[in-house]
Fold these 4 entries.
Entry 1:
Amino acid sequence: MRTLQKLAIAGLTLVLCGSAIAQGGIFGQILDATRGKTGVAGDIFDKAKPIIENAGIDEAKEIEIGNEFAAVLLGAKPLLNDPALQRYVNTLGRWLASQTERPDLPWTFGVLDDVGFNAFATPGGKIFVTKGLLARMRNEAELVGVLSHEIAHVVLKHHVNAMQSKAWVDVAGDFASSKFKGNLAEFKSMAVNLGKDMITKGFDKGDEYAADRVGVVIAARAGFDPYGLPNVLQTLQAQSAQDGNFNLLFKTHPSPTDRLDNLDKVMRNRFESTNGSQGRSFSDRLKEFSR
C-alpha cells in the first residue's frame, strides 16, 4: 500500500474517531521526526500535512465508508428474499438503536441469504444477520442480544478505531523505510480494503467484550431480557469451531466461554430488578409484518 494513500486513510479515520491525538502517539512521533528535515522525509511531511489538516471528515464520511463496507458484504451474500422478515428485523433493530447515544444515524438492518451463523456491522449503522443465525434463535430476546451487540460496535466506533490503528502502524513502517508513492484518488478503495480485513479477521478481544457489555445495556433499555445475549453464547458453547456454519464466527470472536466469564463479572446482580421481556414468537411477528 502506498504511503500517501495510507496517510489519506489514516487522516480520514483519525477525524472519524473524534480523536485529539494529532500531536501525540505515532502521529506526533512521525511529525516530530520529519519537521525541519530535507530529502525524502521532508517531502513526505510537506505533502502529507495538507492531507491531514484539510481532511474535514465528519459523521457523513463515516456513513459513506459504511455504505462501501455494506456493498462488499452484499456482493458476497445477497439479502434474503423475504420482505416480511426484512421489515421485522429492520423495525426491531431501529427500536434498539433508538435507545443508544447515536439514535440519529441512518440505521438499517437486513437478513443475509446465508446458512452460516453470523452477524455484521458497518460504520454508520448498517447491521446484517444471516438467516442461519435467525433459524437458531429460540426467542426474540436472543435476537435482540445479537443485534444490540452489533449496534454497540457502531456506537463505540470500533470500526474506525481499528482502521486508524492499522493505518498508522502501516504508515509508520513506510516512513521507517523511506518509501513514497501515492494517488489520493484511491483512498476510498484503501479504506474499503481495511474494512474487508476487519470482516475476515474481526476486532480485538477488548472491542468484542465492550460490545457485549454495552449490548446487554441496550437490550435492557429497550425493554427486553438482558440475558438474551448470554443465552446465545451458551448455545455457541455447544458448537464446534470446525463446523462450517460457525467457523468464521469463532475465528473473529473470543471464545463463548471467555465472553460469558467477562459478562458475568459485569452483570452479576445488576439486572435482577429488570422485568425484561422475552418478546413475542417469531411466527407472531412475521404474521404481523406480513399484513
Note: The chain is about 60% helix and 5% strand.
Entry 2:
Amino acid sequence: MNIFSLLERAIISDDILIKEGLTTQCLGYCIENEIRCDDDFTPLLFSKPSYASKCHIVDPRELPARKDFESKEGLATLVHAIAHIEYSAIDLALDAVYRYPQMSSEYKVDWLEVASDEIRHFKMLQSILTELGYKYGDFPVHCGLFDAAEHTAENILDRMAIIPRYYEASGLDVSPQIIKKLDNKRKNPQVKKLIDALRIIYDEEIDHVLKGDKWFKYLCKEEGNQEGTEEQVYFEILERYHLLSKHRPHVNVEARKEAGFSCSEIKKLGAKECS
C-alpha cells in the first residue's frame, strides 16, 4: 500500500468522511507494517487549504467578534470557529506524516492517531452546528494554520515547534476560558453539548501537544543540539517566526506542564508562577 498517495488524497479532500476513511486505512496499515517510501517521492506543496471549496477565507482582522452566545447564530459562530480549528488540525496532522516520510513508524502512528482524534472532534462540533441550523462553511474563516504549515514545510523541527508546541499549546490556554464563559448558559442543550465536547477536546489536546513535545526534543537531538538546549532552540524558532510578542492573558500552567513544557518555558511565555 502506498500510504503517501492515500495521505495526499485525504489532505486534498474537503469531504470529512473521505478523510476519515483514508486516515483509518493509513493508521491501521502503519500499526502493522514498516513503511518504506520511494526515493523519488516529493511531497506536494499545497497551494490552498482543502476547506477553500467550502469556506470564505478572510484576513483574521475581518472576522466578526464572537461575544453574543445567547442567539443561535451567535453560538453557531463560536462552534464554527472551533470546528474550523479542528478541521485545520486534521490536515496538519496528516501533513506531518505525508511531508516527512523519513520519520519512523512510531512518529507516523502518533500523528495519524492525532488526525483521527481531530476528525472525531470536528464531527462532534459539526453535529452541534447542524442542531443549530448551520453547517461548516456558513461563516468566514482565516487560514492562519495553513499558512503556518506552509512556512514550516521545509523544516520538520520548526513544524514541531510551531504547530503542536505553539498553536495547539495555545489552545490549552484558551479552552478553559471559553468553558468558563459558557458555564452559566449550560441549561441550553446545545451549550451543554459544546461544553462537553470542549472538555473532551481539551483532554485529548494535552496528549497531542505532548506528542509534539516528544518529537521536537527528539529532532533537537537528531540535529546535533546539545542536551538541555531544547528551550533555547524553541524560543529561537518562535522569535524567527515573530511569535514571541503575542500577548497571553492566560497561561495554563498545569496543562502545559502535563504536555511537556518546563516551568522555565512557561514563565517565559507569560506565567507569573510555576512550580
Note: The chain has ten helices and no strands.
Entry 3:
Amino acid sequence: MFRDRQEAGQKLGASLEALQLKDPIVLALPRGGVPIAAEVAKVLQAPMDLVIVRKVGAPGNPELAVAAIVDGDPPDVVLNREIVEAYALDDGALRVLIAQERPELERRRALYRGKEPPQSVAGKTVIVVDDGAATGTTMKVAIRALKRRSPRKIIVALPVAPPETVDELAQEADLTICLNQPARFRALSYYYGNFPQLSDNDVLDVMAQLRQDRHPAFERRSSGTNAASKSRHEAGT
C-alpha cells in the first residue's frame, strides 16, 4: 500500500531514475496522475506536461467508447474499431459524435493550460503516468496518440495495476513499469492510505507549485498559465 499519491510518485521516480533515461518528459493523465507525475518529474529533473483524453461514447451508451480525442496540436482521434463496426458507424456519424465531445476537451485544455500548447515529445523519452489502471483503456489511447508524435520511446509508469492490464500495456508501450501487480485487483483506493478524489483545482494547484519551485517543466512557459491560475485564486475558487 502507498501512503498517498505523492509517495507513489516518489517510488516510481526512483525506479525510473535507475534507468538513466535520455531526454525524458513526464506526461500525466489528469486528474489522478498529476500529483504522481509531479513527484516523478522532480526526481528525474524532467519537464512535465499533461495528456488530456476525452472519451467519445457510443450512441445510446455513452460509457462505451467508440473513440477518444487526445489533446495536441492538432488533437488526435483514436478509434475503437471494434465498437465502430459493431454500431455500423460511418464517417459522418463519427464526425458528429466527436464534435459533441470537442467542447469539453477544449474546456479542460483552456483550464489546465491557458493558451500554452502541449510540449513537444518528438525525439524524447515519454513517460506516461497515472495513479493506477484497472483496464488501461485511457492509457492505451494516450499511447496510440503519442506514437504519432515521433517520440524516442514511450514508457508507462504506474503504481498499481492488475497483471493482465500490465501485459496489455506492455504490448503498446516500449516499456511498462508497475510497482504493484495484485492478482486480485480491488478498487484503486484500496492500495492507498489516503486517496482523495481530485478536482480541477487540485490539478491547477500542483502545476502552480511546480511553477513556484521553478521546475524545468515551466522554464519555457509564458505568463498565460500564470494569469489563469492567478485569476482562479482571485475569484476565490
Note: The longest helix spans residues 91-113.
Entry 4:
Amino acid sequence: MIIRLSAAVAAGVVLLSGAAHADPVKGAPELTHNALYKAAKLPKVSCGAAKGTTAASTRTYITKLVGCLNKAWKPAIEDFQPVKVEFRAKDDLQSCSSGMDLRESFSEVCGTVIKVRLADDWIRAKKDDKILSSLTRTWSGVVLGQTGIGRAWWALRNDGSEKVMNEQNRRYGLQSDCLQGVSVKSLGRTVKDWPAFLKSAQPKAYARFAKNDGKPANRAHWAGQGHKAGKPGACNTWKAPSAKVA
C-alpha cells in the first residue's frame, strides 16, 4: 500500500540511528503491549445498512457503515473519538495520503475524518463487497491512529536496514488486515475469499505496491484470525515470528 510505502521511505530517511527492532519487535511497548489487545470481543452491531445503485443511496449506506464501526469500536479504544465521513467533490481526485490522482472510488483517513471519493464503480455495483473492504481497511487506520500504534510504528528504529524496515512495515500492514477482519466480524459479515477481499480494498493504482504488504497467504491468515476471534487481541503482529509476517 502506497501510504505505508511513503511513510516507510520517510522513516528510512529520518530514522538511521538507534537500536534496530527485528524479529520480533522489542522495546516498543505501545506496539507489543498496547492496551488495545486487552479489549473484549467487539459487540455485533446490527447495522441495517443496505446499498442502492444511486449516488444518494450509496452515500447513505457508507455513512451508516461508518456509524456502525464507530459504535462497534467505541468500547475497545480508551478515549475513543467518533469519526465522521466526508464525501469529496466529483472533481477532487487527489489522495491526501499518497498525493496521487485517483479516478475510481476510494476511502482514506485524512486528518481526523474518513474521506470518500464516490465514483460510478461503487455507485452502480449491486454488491457492497468493495465498499465494505475499503471502509473496513480504512477503519484499521483509525484504530491504529487512536491507540498510538501508528505513531509508535513510525518512530521505530531500523539502523538504516531496508530489511528491518520492510519487516516493520509488513507487521503494521498485516495488523491492519487483522483489524479489518475484526471489523468485518463486528458487522456480522463473512468473507469467503480473503485474498480477493483484501486486494479490493485498495485502488487499482496502488497494485504495484502490493508486494510490500506481505504474502497473500499471510495476509489471509491474519485477516481470518481477526475475524475468527472478533477481538483486537488476535492482532498483535509485533510479537509474531518473522515467518508469520513475511
Note: Strands lie at 85-87, 106-110, 113-117.
